[in-house]
Automatic annotation (TrEMBL):
<protein>
    <recommendedName>
        <fullName>Hemerythrin-like domain-containing protein</fullName>
    </recommendedName>
</protein>
<dbReference type="InterPro" id="IPR012312">
    <property type="entry name" value="Hemerythrin-like"/>
</dbReference>
<feature type="domain" description="Hemerythrin-like">
    <location>
        <begin position="2"/>
        <end position="110"/>
    </location>
</feature>
<dbReference type="Pfam" id="PF01814">
    <property type="entry name" value="Hemerythrin"/>
</dbReference>
Amino acid sequence: MDEHYEMLDVSGRIRTLLVAGDLAGASTTLTELGRRLGPHAVREERGVFAALREQGDFAAEVLDLEADHRAFDEILAGLDPTAPEFEQRVRTFLADLSLHIDRENLGVFPVTVVTLDDDGWETVARAHADDPADTPVTR
């Protein structure tokens, strides 16, 4: 969840840049957000989401969250800072990302702490070992 808070902080910086009319700065900071979001999504999908699927838990929610990850990649790849709709598309993307993070932080993740068995936590640990984040896996 720490990575989520970091991404929300970056999102806040992007919003500030948009308010200031600094579209180039917003675009650069979006690139930074994308560099964080991509590896984070991979760790989630190979870790927590895979562990939940292995246990047969929350399959529909996991599929929806994974679909969001793919949509976020497509949106980021398609953003053009010179397009007239750039600012609105970025604002919509940031709102969608925030909602996605809430669904994970307030829904799937708290339940995961209670429901994952030892095999599930091993799956999570392997995902982080294969593509480590700055923070260790904790239960």
